[in-house]
Amino acid sequence: MPADPAPAVAVDGLVMRYGDKVAVDGLSLVVERATITAVLGPNGAGKTTTLETCEGYRRPQAGSVRVLGLDPVRDRRELLPRIGVMLQGGGAWSGVRAMEMLDHVARLHAHPLDTAMLADRLGLGDCGRTPYRRLSGGQQQRLGLAMALVGRPEIVFVDEPTAGMDPQARHTTWDLLRELREAGVTVVLTTHYLDEAEQLADQVHIIDRGRLVASGTPEELTRGSSATVRLVVDKELPAEAEAALRASVDRWSVDHDVAVRSISFGSRTLEDVFLELTGRGLRHD
Ligand SMILES: Nc1ncnc2c1ncn2[C@@H]1O[C@H](COP(=O)(O)OP(=O)(O)OP(=O)(O)O)[C@@H](O)[C@H]1O
């Protein structure tokens, strides 16, 4: 029987400081392979520092980090071809054209993906000749993602992958990350968006002030003493229909001994409307 492979990421008691400032304070977490794991937390929680330590850019000051069973600093040469990194803020030179940059990164890998296909998939087909600094924020993000994926990594670290993207680009990116997971790739992402973590992640780690404050599946983390029931109707409700609905809900709550904590009437979210009007595919802006 082959031994179980090491987890994708194992962080144990990690401590990282910048001068006197403790950025990561005894953090431990495990990421299983072929999962999407979201690291959630407010600004300054220590997410980027943790990811950069996993990527081998920073050496742990205390504790240990293993990625695919390897030490990201000591075993960097062995690990580098097996991981993909999408940096916050791009990582491309300002004057380079989008496809030149992607082709350049592809040439650093032994078995890269077809760059034209990848660019097309990410909606970058029309801006291949555009200099990096002239790309929109969302296009820069997508190019950064393409650069992280082109080498067929076993694990990909993506720092706020959809920051600055329009809703279609977000959904296309989510679909792509899900496909990667189906293909056996491990995805570790940081995000500020709760809906992103809820939609995508198999496992969520919430960190605050450098400490792990909760871990679990989105269901585990959202399960509690209350539940949400959502009703979507096909037209705006006249006042009498709204009143009748409230009265029915009141009767239902008595009949079933359920306390209704809140009830709200409103329209669909802007994101719902935007997606419905413009379709799910990526807009080639
Ligand atoms: N190079 C640095 N020098 C000094 N302090 C730093 C440095 N990088 C990060 N910090 C500090 O360390 C803490 C953790 O920062 P980090 O970037 O890891 O958090 P984050 O969770 O990724 O935040 P954000 O969501 O804003 O990107 C913050 O207080 C930050 O100000």
UniProtKB/TrEMBL annotation:
<dbReference type="InterPro" id="IPR050763">
    <property type="entry name" value="ABC_transporter_ATP-binding"/>
</dbReference>
<keyword id="KW-0067">ATP-binding</keyword>
<protein>
    <submittedName>
        <fullName>ABC transporter ATP-binding protein</fullName>
    </submittedName>
</protein>
<dbReference type="InterPro" id="IPR003593">
    <property type="entry name" value="AAA+_ATPase"/>
</dbReference>
<dbReference type="GO" id="GO:0005524">
    <property type="term" value="F:ATP binding"/>
</dbReference>
<dbReference type="InterPro" id="IPR017871">
    <property type="entry name" value="ABC_transporter-like_CS"/>
</dbReference>
<dbReference type="Pfam" id="PF00005">
    <property type="entry name" value="ABC_tran"/>
</dbReference>
<dbReference type="InterPro" id="IPR003439">
    <property type="entry name" value="ABC_transporter-like_ATP-bd"/>
</dbReference>
<feature type="domain" description="ABC transporter">
    <location>
        <begin position="9"/>
        <end position="234"/>
    </location>
</feature>
<keyword id="KW-0547">Nucleotide-binding</keyword>
<dbReference type="InterPro" id="IPR027417">
    <property type="entry name" value="P-loop_NTPase"/>
</dbReference>
<keyword id="KW-0046">Antibiotic resistance</keyword>
<keyword id="KW-0813">Transport</keyword>
